[in-house]
Amino acid sequence: MLYDDRNVRPGVQFAEADLLGTPIRIIVGERNWQERKVEWKRRDYDKKGLLPYDEVLPTVQRWLTEGGSL
Questions:
Q1: Which residues contact 43 (CB under 8 A, 6 or more apart)?
Q2: pTM to 2 decimal places
Q3: Backbone angles phi, psi at 9, to 5 degrees
Q4: Using the 8-state DSSP alphabet, how is residue 8 labeled?
Q5: Cα–Cα distance list, 37 to 14, 21, 64, 69 (Å)
Q6: Residue among 15, 65, 5 nearest 41 (CA)
Q7: Greater model confidence, 70 or 67
């Protein structure tokens, strides 16, 4: 798990997380959080989307259990 709370632009944080090979990115942003959602991105499928925040943990656990290139 990587938690990046530096005072830099999000693009810099995302680029560096990609360089480190982070397989799943969960982005908690103010706008989506107000809608009770978080953004996700999977590196192995190059897909992204939104999840209700109460589904994040079970979904990520399922992805990690499925394996694949994670």
A1: 18, 21, 22, 23, 24, 25
A2: 0.75
A3: -60, 145
A4: S
A5: 19, 24, 20, 26
A6: 15
A7: 67
Question: Looking at residue 54, what DSSP letter applies?
Answer: G
CB count within 10 Å of CB 8 equals 10
* Residue 24 bridge partners (DSSP): 42
pLDDT tens-digit readout, 12-69: 998 998 888 888 999 998 999 999 999 999 988 888 999 999 999 999 999 989 875 4
Pairwise CA distance, residues 46 & 29, whole Å: 20
Closest CA to 53 of 22, 32, 30, 70: 32
